[in-house]
UniProtKB/TrEMBL annotation:
Signal peptide per UniProt: 1-25
Lineage: Eukaryota, Viridiplantae, Streptophyta, Embryophyta, Tracheophyta
Protein name: Phytocyanin domain-containing protein
Record bears the keyword Signal: yes
Organism: Colocasia esculenta (Wild taro)
Domain of life: Eukaryota
Record carries keyword ATP-binding: no
Protein role: May act as a carbohydrate transporter.
GO molecular function terms attached to this record: electron transfer activity
GO cellular component entries: plasma membrane
Amino acid sequence: MAPSRPSLLLLLSVSLLAAARLAAATDHIVGAHLGWNPNINYSDWANNQTFYVNDLISFRYQKNTYRVFEVNQTGYDNCTTDSAVGNWSSGKDFILLDEPKRYYFICPGFCFNGMKVSVVVHPLPSPPGSHNASLSEHSKIHGSGAAASLLGGGGFLGSLAATAAAISAAWIGI
Ligand SMILES: *[C@@H]1O[C@H](CO)[C@@H](O)[C@H](O)[C@H]1NC(C)=O
Ligand SMILES: *[C@@H]1O[C@H](CO)[C@@H](O)[C@H](O)[C@H]1NC(C)=O
Ligand SMILES: *[C@@H]1O[C@H](CO)[C@@H](O)[C@H](O)[C@H]1NC(C)=O
Ligand SMILES: *[C@@H]1O[C@H](CO)[C@@H](O)[C@H](O)[C@H]1NC(C)=O
Ligand SMILES: *[C@@H]1O[C@H](CO)[C@@H](O)[C@H](O)[C@H]1NC(C)=O
Ligand SMILES: *[C@@H]1O[C@H](CO)[C@@H](O)[C@H](O)[C@H]1NC(C)=O
């Protein structure tokens, strides 16, 4: 049996919201337009932006010449790969920063030429206006609209989701 229209709409509003939240994660391109190359001071680049959990760090470089190794602090300080927890070599690598901690990346062979970068990843900030008690009151009154605000927080995305949920709620007839 095909799903009814209202549930499709509700599904749409929820997945739209999920997509929007995913899109909110930033892709930090190492070195910006300079990419991953020797003789660049990447601490200037790293210090100039804020990293949050679920952001991406991406390395763009000449394949077969350079690589990316994730190492620990010792590996970063001494340009060694004994501590490698991952390595990439596609020339365009996207690495998910999924933990709130300091990450270290180096390029073996070119690490002493400056191809090393360390970034601090911060925990996700709590969504704006997350009031526990008032939210449950809210959900009694507004039904699925509150579900959307629970997922979406505030701002444009939140109102977008609330609108979508309101439409589906109207369709269901609550
Ligand atoms: C990179 O720049 C920072 C400050 O901008 C400086 O402290 C650091 O020594 C530099 N690193 C190198 C290898 O030059
Ligand atoms: C820091 O970021 C600003 C704004 O994005 C940019 O204009 C500036 O060139 C950046 N500086 C460095 C050293 O990357
Ligand atoms: C890393 O290098 C420092 C000096 O820069 C040295 O004291 C230390 O023993 C080295 N660590 C390893 C594991 O090689
Ligand atoms: C990094 O890993 C190496 C090899 O596993 C280890 O000897 C070293 O103590 C580690 N350094 C840190 C700071 O955890
Ligand atoms: C690079 O990563 C692969 C797995 O993705 C692993 O099998 C290989 O040993 C790693 N290479 C080094 C030099 O750490
Ligand atoms: C939400 O509830 C949890 C546990 O009940 C509490 O730790 C947290 O501070 C509350 N957050 C707000 C914004 O009231």
